[in-house]
User: Which sequence fits this backbone?
């Protein structure tokens, strides 16, 4: 379902201009020496300084307010210099006070063009004010966000977003427009990343086509959702696109109705992924995800809050979100689901282009399975598990995967869908 706009890093050519940019050309300075002249310095001290300087440089770059950060290490000089002392100098080049960007985004089988305007350091403590407009094949959005980290602890931050999102969902013959505001608090705990969020959304649902089913027409109209949510993420993967090792754990809870609005539910979902490098440069990846939506009170859940399954991002061989409960060809989503996948990635046969362009391609063997349904909450857990285990959809096949840097992956697969039920596409 539609999500709020998060503060996104800006890429692409910068459009901002400031007075400093049109001053006289800089005078070329003498090259700086990064060679230690003090022979009495212990190697372990030198290595420790190098390591800590690198960590500090990474923290400065992570703030997103510097264009360049250079480190110069030399022996201490001057009247106050200590014996065997070191001077560590950080030379930084700040970003412009206002930057602009344009880029494209690919995800969830959809492409979009994104225009952005950002003030990267509003009050001098790495606060960011961002305006973003996105026009996509299924979704158009714009929003304003303010991001503020805690000084000295960039991982602890707050953000406030105001947005409007209009999305089209052809598998449900549905159009949704969200106008909302949200506030988030992010912080690390041990090896996890935690996020607390409040969101208030005015939702407007309408029919995308005249042929929309009566069940979708019944859902049309306005609603107000006010919800509190919590997310926990542990990510040890070396890459989010084609990982070779590590794991991922995501747990998300959302409670709506207790802070206002006319939508009342409890929503839980999770995702687990494990990756293991094998022999012959191959990688085995296993994933499992699922969710449960519990209505609170007598009002049924909304089509905008339910889960959807099917497509290249979940169960390959089925059309995008086109399985499970449906009415007259329109898919209505489900209140419970599970899905899993087993993938084997290997180099291309005979390793063409090894060490170069050929390493971007991988052979892909996969097995996907899952189910999506509605539950009768008057029944017990055993009845729920039995229903989720019935009529399992699954598919298998093979193909080729192309990695596009660290932003996306393209797949060309031959899929054989199995366990197809009446109404599935």
Assistant:
């Amino acid at each position: 379902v539609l999500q709020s706009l998060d503060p996104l890093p800006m890429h692409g050519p910068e459009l901002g201009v400031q007075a400093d940019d049109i001053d006289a050309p800089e005078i070329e300075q003498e090259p700086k020496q990064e060679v230690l002249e003090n022979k009495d310095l212990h190697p372990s001290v030198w290595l420790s300084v190098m390591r800590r300087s690198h960590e500090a440089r990474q923290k400065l770059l992570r703030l997103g307010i510097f264009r360049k950060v250079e480190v110069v290490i030399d022996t201490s000089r001057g009247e106050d210099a200590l014996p065997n002392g070191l001077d560590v100098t950080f030379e930084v080049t700040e970003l412009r006070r206002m930057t602009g960007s344009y880029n494209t985004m690919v995800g969830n089988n959809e492409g979009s063009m994104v225009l952005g305007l950002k003030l990267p350091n509003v009050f001098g403590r790495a606060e960011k004010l961002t305006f973003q407009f996105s026009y996509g094949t299924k979704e158009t959005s714009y929003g304003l966000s303010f991001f503020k980290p805690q000084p000295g602890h960039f991982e602890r931050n707050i953000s406030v977003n105001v947005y409007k999102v209009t999305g089209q969902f052809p598998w449900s013959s549905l159009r949704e427009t969200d106008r909302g505001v949200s506030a988030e608090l992010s912080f690390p705990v041990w090896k996890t990343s935690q996020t607390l969020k409040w969101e208030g959304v005015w939702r407007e649902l309408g029919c995308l086509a005249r042929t929309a089913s009566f069940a979708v027409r019944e859902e049309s109209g306005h609603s107000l959702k006010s919800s509190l949510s919590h997310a926990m993420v542990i990510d040890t993967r070396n890459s989010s696109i084609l990982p070779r090792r590590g794991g991922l754990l995501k747990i998300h809870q959302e409670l709506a109705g207790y802070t206002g609005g006319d939508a009342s539910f409890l929503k839980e979902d999770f995702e687990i992924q494990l990756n293991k490098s094998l022999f012959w440069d191959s990688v085995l990846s296993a994933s499992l995800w699922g969710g449960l939506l519990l209505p609170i009170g007598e009002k049924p859940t909304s089509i905008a809050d339910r889960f959807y399954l099917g497509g290249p991002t979940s169960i390959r061989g089925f059309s995008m979100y086109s399985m499970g409960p449906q009415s007259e060809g329109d898919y209505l989503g489900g209140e419970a689901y599970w899905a899993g996948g087993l993938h084997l990635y290997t180099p291309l046969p005979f390793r063409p282009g090894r060490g170069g362009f050929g390493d971007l391609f991988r052979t892909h063997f996969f097995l996907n399975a899952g189910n999506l349904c509605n539950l009768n909450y008057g029944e017990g857990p055993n009845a729920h598990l039995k229903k989720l285990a019935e009529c399992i959809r699954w598919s298998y096949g093979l193909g080729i995967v192309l990695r596009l840097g660290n932003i996306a992956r393209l797949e060309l697969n031959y899929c054989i869908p199995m366990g197809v039920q009446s109404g599935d596409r």
